[in-house]
Amino acid sequence: MFVDRSLENGSSLVAALRELGFDLTDIQASEIERGKDFVQLKNGPFDLDLIFAPDGIERFEDAWDRRVEVEGFPVCHIDDIISSKEAAGRERDRESLPRLRAFRDYWIQEAKRKKL
User: Fold this and answer.
1) How many Å apart are CA 45 and CA 48, to the nearest integer?
2) Where does the pLDDT of residue 114 fall: very low under 50, low under 70, confident under 90, or very high at 90 and above?
3) What is the DSSP letter of 6?
4) Helix or strand (DSSP H, E) at 38
5) What kind and span of H or E run contains 11?
6) What is the residue-wise DSSP string for 39-76?
7) What's phi and psi for 43, nearest 5 deg?
8) Smaller CB count within 10 Å for the chain: N or C?
9) How far, in Å, CA of 49 to CA of 41, rounded?
């Protein structure tokens, strides 16, 4: 989950995660509140990665402007996801790029088809 870094957001997120059943340590809560670049949670009802500073995306506001809605939920635009994977440069990210690009091409074609 890509989250805008702010103290207010971090505090609200900690409260929401605890309400969902995450057993946050004081260290994890502090990291979330201050917007640590990456926080991985495995102590709740599901695993969750919180990303406050993804590679390849300069500002949250820019990514938010490009977001798409999927079943009522805001989701990063596929181009931002691809940019982040390219910038990260990890092997598993490089391996996922062909599938992500193929999905982007499919998505573009479907959008064009629906407009016709």
Assistant:
1) 9
2) confident
3) -
4) strand 38-41
5) helix 7-20
6) EEE-SSSS-EEEESS-TT---HHHHHHH-EEETTEEE-
7) -120, 45
8) C
9) 6
Predicted TM-score (pTM) of this structure: 0.82
Phi, then psi, of 50 in degrees rounded to 5: -100, 125
Inter-residue contact 32 to 13 (CB < 8 Å):
yes
| Residue 35 DSSP one-character state | T
Distances (CA, A) of 7 to 3, 4, 33, 41, 57: 11, 10, 6, 19, 20
Task: Look up residue 1 and give its two tokens.
Answer: 């989950």
Give the model confidence (pLDDT) of 36-52 as tens digits: 999 999 999 999 999 99
Under 8 Å between Cβ of 80 and 61 = no
pLDDT, tens digit (0-9, with 9 covering 90-100), for 55-87 = 999 899 999 999 999 999 999 999 999 999 999
One-letter identity of residue 36: K
**DSSP-derived pairing of the beta strands 38-41 and 48-51:** antiparallel
